[in-house]
Write a structure and sequence with these properties.
It is elongated and about 60 Å long. The protein has about 180 residues and is of the alpha/beta class. Helix 1 links the parallel strand 1 and strand 2. The protein is built from six helices and seven strands, in the order βαβααβαβββαβα. The two termini are about 20 Å apart.
Length: about 180
């Protein structure tokens, strides 16, 4: 199963357009989590306490672990996240906070090193930027998390940049990225 984590909020999102073309090329059915339509909330004092208690008991039956289980069970993960303010939309960070559950997506070795438990071997990160794209605080973070904590062997960046700069054709750039998939 392909999991499509969609953090695009605009109806005419260029990021979503590229991600949908990628999903079509991958040629398999996918489950979409449209983050702005989900009831995602950052962990609070109360939800963090509950989560910690359940994890310590090894009880992963709570619905609060649904996103983590879905993420861990995916064969391929596609994340669509426009480049906003040198990073990705806050709702994606909230989603990550909700899926990073020790015992589902990762565990720790006896010497304290993270061991990924995710089934996926590949994660695609699709992004668009109005100007030059700087991956440090977006793809860099996702790649490090995927490879070093979640057990996903490969994280692939697919980007379209300079889309809002005078003299550049956003449609031509997006079309070029889609044709290179």
């Amino acid at each position: 199963m392909i999991l499509y984590v969609n953090s695009c909020v605009r109806d005419d999102s260029r990021t979503n357009r590229i991600a949908l073309a990628l999903l079509k090329k991958l040629g398999k059915e996918y489950e979409e989590v449209k983050l702005d339509k989900e009831d995602l909330k950052p962990l609070s004092k109360e939800t963090l306490k509950l989560r910690t208690e359940l994890i310590s008991k090894g009880d992963y039956s709570s619905p609060m672990f649904g996103y983590a289980k879905q993420f861990a069970d995916a064969d391929i993960i596609v994340i669509a996240a426009p480049f906003w303010d040198l990073s990705f939309p806050a709702i994606l960070k909230t989603y990550i906070e909700n899926i990073y559950v020790t015992g589902i997506v990762s565990k720790y070795s006896p010497d304290g090193k993270p061991v990924g438990l995710c089934k996926a071997k590949k994660l695609y990160y699709v992004t668009t930027a109005g100007g030059p794209y700087v991956p440090d605080y977006s793809f860099g973070y996702i790649k490090d998390l995927a490879v070093n904590y979640l057990g996903i062997e490969e994280a692939v960046l697919i980007k379209a940049q300079m889309l809002d700069v005078d003299g550049f054709s956003a449609d031509a750039i997006v079309d070029e990225v889609i044709s290179s998939l």
